[in-house]
Specification:
11 helices, four-stranded mixed sheet, about 25% strand, eight-stranded mixed sheet, alpha/beta, globular, about 425 residues, 18 strands
Length: about 425
C-alpha cells in the first residue's frame, strides 16, 4: 500500500470595501460597506507515494461561483506554475451571497476586474502552502451525522431535505489534522446585507479550527435549501444566526466522527463529461417566455435590462441547442468518493448519486468548476418558479428539459461506475 500525503494551505481573498456584492436581484448596486468576516481560498493537496501523475488539489473558495473565464484562467495559471495537469486541479465554491461578483451572473453584482486579477496569485499561494505542508496520513476518520438543524426545502412543501453533515478527517503524522466537512444549504443567512461574509460555511470552518483542525467546507446540493431563518422572515438573518448555524454544523461533524481509523489508499482523480438535455430555444420562444412572465405579473424588478444581455449570451452559445456538456470531477481514496458538479443541484439529485454507491462516504458537491446554474428536478420543473426559469436569465444559460436532473444523475452514476 502506498502512503497518502495530505497538506493544507489558505489565503485571504477578501475584496476591498466598495466592491459590488453578488446575489439577490438585478442591478442592486449592493456594495461592501463592512467586512463581518474574511473570505478565504483554502487548498487541500493530496499525493500518493510515487504517483507519476503528481498531486491532486482541491481548492475551495468563499465565492458565489466561478465564471468560465475565471475558472479557465485559474486552472491554467496553477497548471503552468505548479506543473500539475489541469485535470487534477479541482475547484468548488461555498456559494456565499455576501461576496464579490465574479462575472458569473448577469446583473447580480458587477465584477471588479482589479480584484479578480488578484485571485490567481492568491490561490496559487494557497496551493503552494498546501504542497509545502504535505505530511503522511495515518488514516481517515469518517463523520455522518444529522444533528445540525440549519435548513429547509424552499421549493415544494414537504419535499425531501438532507439534514446530514458528512465528511472526514485526515489524521496526519506530526501535523495538524485536516477536516473536510459538508452540509447542504444556501449561504444566504444575511440576506442582501451590504457586508462581506463567508456566512455559515466560514463559521463552521472557524469553529473546527478553534478545535485544532485545519478545515475546508464543501457545500452540497443546496439548490432547494435555504437557512431556517428565511422560513419565518426572509432576509432577516444576523451574523449571530450565521455563527449559530456554523457552530451547529461543526458540532454535528464532531459528534458524528467515528473512532475507527480507516486506510486512505487508492488516490484517484478524474474529470469526465455528462450530456444534459436542453429545451429547444429560439429568439421567438424567448419572446413568448417573457410575454408569459409579463402576463403573470411576476417579472423581477429591474429585469428589463437583463434580457438583451441574456439574449446575447445565448446567441454566443448557440440558439436551439439540444444539449450541453457538464464537466464533473471525481476525487476518491479509501472509502471516500467526492463528486464535483457544476450545478446548484437539488436534494433528490444528490441523494440519487449517493445511494448508487452503498458502503462509500459519498460527498456530492455543487458549484464546482464553473457553475452552470440550477438543475431542478422533474417535480420542481412541473411546479415552475425561480429555479426553473428566472435563474436561467441570471446565469445566462439555456433552459433545461424536464427530466434533465434525473438524466444527469444517471449519467454521473454511469461514468463513476465506469471509472471504478
Amino acid at each position: 500500500m502506498q502512503a497518502l500525503y495530505a497538506g493544507y494551505g489558505a489565503e485571504d481573498i477578501t475584496p476591498p470595501l466598495g466592491t459590488e456584492l453578488s446575489g439577490y436581484g438585478y442591478f442592486l448596486g449592493r456594495r461592501a460597506a463592512e467586512v463581518l468576516d474574511p473570505l478565504w481560498a483554502r487548498c487541500l493537496a493530496l499525493q500518493e507515494g510515487s504517483d507519476q501523475e503528481g498531486p491532486a488539489l482541491l481548492i475551495c473558495c468563499d465565492l458565489v461561483g466561478l465564471s468560465p473565464a475565471l475558472f479557465d484562467g485559474l486552472r491554467r495559471r496553477l497548471a503552468e506554475a505548479l506543473g500539475i495537469p489541469a485535470g487534477r486541479l479541482h475547484f468548488v465554491c461555498t456559494h456565499t451571497h455576501t461576496g464579490p461578483g465574479t462575472g458569473l451572473l448577469i446583473g447580480c453584482g458587477e465584477p471588479d476586474p482589479a480584484y479578480l486579477a488578484t485571485l490567481p496569485e492568491k490561490i496559487l499561494a494557497a496551493a503552494r502552502a498546501a504542497l509545502s505542508d504535505l505530511a503522511a496520513v495515518d488514516g481517515l476518520r469518517l463523520s455522518d451525522s444529522s444533528g445540525a438543524s440549519v435548513g429547509y426545502n424552499r421549493t415544494i412543501a414537504n419535499s425531501p431535505l438532507d439534514p446530514a453533515t458528512r465528511g472526514w478527517v485526515f489524521v496526519r503524522q506530526d501535523a495538524a489534522p485536516i477536516a473536510v466537512v459538508q452540509h447542504a444549504c444556501h449561504p444566504v443567512t444575511l440576506g442582501p446585507a451590504e457586508a462581506v461574509s463567508a456566512d455559515f460555511p466560514g463559521q463552521a470552518v472557524r469553529e473546527l479550527e478553534r478545535q485544532g483542525c485545519r478545515a475546508l467546507f464543501i457545500n452540497g446540493p443546496c439548490g432547494d435549501v435555504d437557512p431556517l431563518v428565511n422560513q419565518t422572515a426572509w432576509g432577516s438573518g444576523t451574523p449571530e444566526d450565521a455563527a449559530r448555524y456554523g457552530q451547529a454544523i461543526a458540532r454535528s461533524f464532531r459528534d458524528g466522527l467515528s473512532s475507527r481509523l480507516l486506510p486512505p489508499e487508492g488516490l484517484r482523480s478524474a474529470v469526465f463529461h455528462v450530456t444534459v438535455p436542453l429545451r429547444p430555444f429560439t429568439p421567438g420562444s424567448l419572446a413568448c417566455l417573457l410575454a408569459e412572465q409579463e402576463k403573470r405579473g411576476d417579472r423581477p424588478p429591474r429585469s428589463a435590462g437583463v434580457f438583451p444581455l441574456y439574449e446575447e449570451r445565448i446567441r454566443q452559445q448557440g440558439w436551439d441547442r439540444e444539449s450541453e456538456t457538464a464537466s464533473v470531477f471525481r476525487l476518491s481514496f479509501g472509502p471516500v468518493l467526492l463528486v464535483g458538479t457544476p450545478y446548484e443541484l437539488f436534494t433528490e439529485t444528490g441523494r440519487a448519486i449517493r445511494e448508487a454507491f452503498p458502503g462509500k462516504m459519498v460527498l456530492v458537491a455543487g458549484n464546482a468548476s464553473s457553475t452552470h446554474g440550477y438543475l431542478p428536478t422533474r417535480a420542481a420543473m412541473e411546479k415552475g418558479g425561480y429555479e426553473t426559469v428566472d435563474s436561467a436569465f441570471v446565469y445566462g444559460r439555456p433552459l433545461q428539459k424536464t427530466g434533465a436532473a434525473e438524466a444527469f444523475a444517471q449519467g454521473v452514476i454511469a461514468q463513476l461506475r465506469r471509472l471504478a
